[in-house]
């Protein structure tokens, strides 16, 4: 890994970095167009291309009326050249990667140490401003599983796997067959979003609970997730909705608490002050019972504005609480 020097060779080094950046953003570059973008002659472009080749970048000359250049994949990793903003972004990304649960924590930590060691002190100080503390996690994803799923997604190949859950081990369930479409990280866990042809529905699976079988199944024609956005789709599924990213059960109450004591615990709800010491809260949950129980945690008087289903859920919750109290007294 190298950083562009700032001494007498700064102009040449900066131009090399600009040339490399241009070669990375499109497949083919006519020599004249590159020269124009860099503000130099075509002869200088040829010399700079030779310099990139010398340090390991496989830049191929393209024959034709205009001629040009193409950056291709090589057989070995060339030295990496970063400008200052790229170097800081890389260090921050590696620091975050240590806590992804993707099985690359050790490699990411070693890469971060390597990057920090060669960074100028001013850049190291900027990168170190971002402090990331990885919370202790109880799930760890096998990197090979992530790579295998990613490969199947790109190749549009059906995957077969055993799937375990807290209630049933993988061997107690039939083998799943799913068309994989997306790998998503949510709340520190990896999920596979795919189409289950047997059930004719979209399904979401925790990757850490998957045990892949080989070989993969047949190829399939990719389809679009409902709504077209996988993040919105997954958020909706976690709220118990099949369509919009919204809770299926939504209600409105007034709590005998000041706004400052409600807002920090409102989640994705909307809280507003209606009077001193009283707060209106509009929020939702996956069921009316869950919504009533969630609102009861505020430990304050609750006035249900609506709908009637929420008021009925509070009544049922109160009945169950009374029964539980009597059983406890016995």
Automatic annotation (TrEMBL):
Keywords: DNA-binding, Transcription, Transcription regulation. SUPFAM superfamilies: Winged helix' DNA-binding domain (SSF46785). PROSITE patterns: HTH_DEOR_1, HTH_DEOR_2, WYL. GO terms for molecular function: DNA binding; DNA-binding transcription factor activity. Residues 12-67 form the HTH deoR-type domain. It comes from the Bacteria. This is Predicted DNA-binding transcriptional regulator YafY, contains an HTH and WYL domains. It comes from Amycolatopsis sacchari.
């Amino acid at each position: 890994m190298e950083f562009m020097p700032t001494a007498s060779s700064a102009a040449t080094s900066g131009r090399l970095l600009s040339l490399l950046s241009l070669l990375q953003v499109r497949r083919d570059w006519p020599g004249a167009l590159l020269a124009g973008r860099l503000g130099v002659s075509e002869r200088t472009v040829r010399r700079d291309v030779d310099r990139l080749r010398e340090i390991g970048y496989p830049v191929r000359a393209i024959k034709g009326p205009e001629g040009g250049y193409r950056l291709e994949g090589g057989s070995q990793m060339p030295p990496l050249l970063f400008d200052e903003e790229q170097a800081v972004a890389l260090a921050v990304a590696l620091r975050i990667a240590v806590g992804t649960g993707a099985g690359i924590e050790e490699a990411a930590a070693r890469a971060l140490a390597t990057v920090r060691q060669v960074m100028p002190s001013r850049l190291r100080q900027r990168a170190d401003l971002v402090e990331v503390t990885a919370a202790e996690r109880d799930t760890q994803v096998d990197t090979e599983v992530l790579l295998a799923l990613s490969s199947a997604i790109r190749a549009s190949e059906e995957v077969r796997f055993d799937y375990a859950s807290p209630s049933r081990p993988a061997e107690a369930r039939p083998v799943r067959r799913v068309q994989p479409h997306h790998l998503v990280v949510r709340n520190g866990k990896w999920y596979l979003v795919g189409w289950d042809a047997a059930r004719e529905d979209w399904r979401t699976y925790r990757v850490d609970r998957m045990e892949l079988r080989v070989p993969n199944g047949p190829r399939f024609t990719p389809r679009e997730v409902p709504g077209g956005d996988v993040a919105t789709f997954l958020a909706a599924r976690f709220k118990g909705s099949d369509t919009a990213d919204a809770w299926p059960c939504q209600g409105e109450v007034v709590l005998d608490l000041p706004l400052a004591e409600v807002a920090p615990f409102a989640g994705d709800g909307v809280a507003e002050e209606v009077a001193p010491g009283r707060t209106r809260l509009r929020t939702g949950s996956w069921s009316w019972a869950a919504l009533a129980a969630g609102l009861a945690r505020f430990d304050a008087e609750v006035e249900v504005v609506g709908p009637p289903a929420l008021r009925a859920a509070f009544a049922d919750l109160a009945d169950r609480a009374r029964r539980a109290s009597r059983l406890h007294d016995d």
